[in-house]
Request: fold
Amino acid sequence: MNANILHTPITYLKGVGPGRAELLGSELAVHTYGDLLQVFPNRYIDRTSYYKINELKRTNADVQIIGEITDIRTVSQKRGKRLVATFSDETGSMELVWFRGQKWIANNLKSRTKYVVFGRTNWFNNRFSMPHPEMELLDEHQSSLRTAMQPIYPSTEKLSTRGISNRVMINLMQQLFRETNNSFPETLSENIISDLSLVSRAEALFNIHFPQSQEMIARAKFRLKFEELFYIQLQLISKKLIRKKKIKGFPFEEVGEHFNDFYSNHLPFPLTGAQKKVLKEIRADLGSNAQMNRLLQGDVGSGKTVVALMSMLLALDNGFQACLMAPTEILAIQHYNSLTELLIGMPVEIALLTGSTKKARRSEIHAGLDDGSLQILIGTHAVLEDKVQFTNLGLAIIDEQHRFGVAQRSKLWKKNEKPPHILVMTATPIPRTLAMSLYGDLDISIIDELPPGRKPVRTVHRTDSNRLKLFQFIRDEIKQGRQIYVVYPLIKESEALDYKDLMDGYESLVRDFPMPDYQISIVHGKMKSEDKDYEMQRFVKGQSQIMVATTVIEVGVNIPNASVMVIESAERFGLSQLHQLRGRVGRGADQSYCILMTADQLSTDAQTRISTMVHTNDGFEIAEVDLRLRGPGDLMGTQQSGLLNLKIADIVKDNDVLKTARYYALQTLKKDPELSSEENTVIRKIYAEIMRESGLWNYIS
Ligand code: ADP
Ligand code: MG
Reply:
């Protein structure tokens, strides 16, 4: 097989035209044959057994049923219409329901013809129904090639409404295997394969898509997960080895005037024990010869800012400059303001640089950085521009790091001939074990204590029937001069409906809270960024009392006067997101509230999430529950950071595989640090390829 066939653009695959290629690209990031090969099924279902309608249970599982459509009609509902078909077999009847793509479906359904329908059943209005079933004519069903275990591929709203059903995915996969002849070269060494009795790569890939048995699915999964984690660990470990060997940092030997003066004369409050502890850890790093690469975790409000400042003062004491970067302009301004305030009366030069800094000011900043008179720079991505040159940057701090992209962090390193010390601050609690495997060799400090005297946010769970009371409560709070957030969920899979909910909610608030007594701001992802900033600023300045938003406000905005966080459809948010959102309130002296609005009926998981939120404010406890519930899939934005874009392994659930992979990666590098032995030929080759393509390396270095 031509080794490069996996790089073939996906449009070349039979069955994929430009339209499908574009969809696959935008929805699943599939651009090449190789990308498609790596779209792994979420799960498998047994397609050899069929249910009768009178055998259905009210525990919505996936089932397939043979029957006929006897009636099709359109039914109006609160939002729009739905298409409903009566589907019957000899034992009874049920409903098939469509909320999208109704016209096309209505035109193409055949009545009095035998279908096999497949999907998840609901018990609704005393009847079974199946929303958006997968349908196949019985004839075709019987004649098509299939295995007992049918894969279910990841899908999105767009994919399914635009015709890329699971069936189509399976067909594309079959075509892919035909064209590539299922000849995928081995990527692990013979030693490892025999040591762990792994199936070959080709066998694993075939069985993950066309499983021959339950056992083969298990073996295929293990093999692919191992491989994925092995190469990540190989990168992390070898990078650590290189860093320890080659990269010297600037030793900050002095604890000098700036630090001591601040500590004795300007610190507005005693540090908490946790703040002292992490400062000690940071000082130990900075004082040693090696370059610091540290992750500072602390819940919202735990007081990371002052720790950041004191670390920067250490840099200044040793004759170095420092910078602090935030992911948005609003946050950068906030940091600038609070640091300037903390530094009142101290001889420290500090400046703010963002995209909107005027040209004249910009030149001053460049000059100040260049001649060393400017000591601390606070900013956004603007700090990373090539024109921004420090004379001696000794410490770079990144706040809320998961909003920063891969390439950006490595740019910081190039601001000097020697890399500055790096401190990454995040407000998202990550259980330690997870952090280790995610960040490999980053050292970790945790602020696990809030400053004294904080009033914990009071969290309650409410449903639609409480809405009038909720509005009255909002009115009362506004009367007392407080501000309110109302947040709506927005996920890619149901974007269109979510935007509709958001706008409906906004309009209903505008009706109940009319101008001129009330001003309502709205911020969402489809707005231009100037408009977003404008609306945000209105709220920051207190000109509007209510902020309606999607989760764009999640990241560290600090508005002490906002005391109520209403989260709509709270059951649709993940725990860490709920916790982040709640962290937006409770920053001032007033009692704050978080109100979780949900539907009446909740799934078990949703119930757990909501009750966890109601009974604890502890970010780490919440993170643990979150991990248990769903694994780290979207935990702490790993997905959006692209940091670990795992295709198949799951950092938490596959902890054992991870340990095995780490062990083998360590052993491999211990025995053969350059991967130059005969035995490691394959590994060396694959590793070099990954290095050429991967962002992971850049991210961490
Ligand atoms: P975060 O970790 O979310 O960035 P901040 O650094 O913004 O938290 O701190 C939140 C608030 O707590 C700020 O108003 C800050 O002045 C205050 N604060 C920080 N440390 C202490 C402390 N040790 N004692 C009292 N208040 C503190
Ligand atoms: Mg902060």
User: Anything to note?
Assistant: The longest strand covers residues 62-76. The pocket of adenosine-5'-diphosphate (ligand 1) is lined by residues 269, 271-272, 275, 298, 300-306, 427, 451 (CB under 6 Å). The radius of gyration is 28 Å. Residues 143 and 225 are 34 Å apart (CA to CA).
